[in-house]
Amino acid sequence: MENPHAERQAVLLERILKNTSKCTETILELNKSLEEIIQANYHLQTAANLSMQYRKNVQYNLTSAKSRHTQHRDKP
């Protein structure tokens, strides 16, 4: 006759291993999804930086043009 305590321990251990395996699988899927999000955000960040630099350049050129226009108009 086998030890009932040992049988119960074996069943519990099997459940723990199964749940741990499922958890590991889910974490791997989550990591993959996070990598995809990070990659997508990298492209968005690059686009945002380019847009911000373009806006700064436009603002600089508008200020410079306005300054030149004002100086040219004020000359006698």
From TrEMBL:
Keyword vocabulary terms for this entry: Cell cycle, Cell division, Centromere, Chromosome, Cytoplasm, Cytoskeleton, Kinetochore, Microtubule, Mitosis, Nucleus
Coiled-coil intervals, chain numbering: none
Keyword Cytoplasm among record annotations: yes
Pfam families linked to this entry: DASH_Dad4
GO cellular component: DASH complex; microtubule; mitotic spindle
Leader sequence residues: none
Biological processes per GO annotation: attachment of spindle microtubules to kinetochore; cell division
Domain of life: Eukaryota
Transmembrane parts of this sequence: none
Compartments, as annotated in UniProt: Chromosome, Centromere, Kinetochore; Cytoplasm, Cytoskeleton, Spindle; Nucleus
Stated family: Belongs to the DASH complex DAD4 family.
Matches recorded under PANTHER family: DASH COMPLEX SUBUNIT DAD4 (PTHR28222)
Full protein name: DASH complex subunit DAD4
Organism of this sequence: Lentinula detonsa
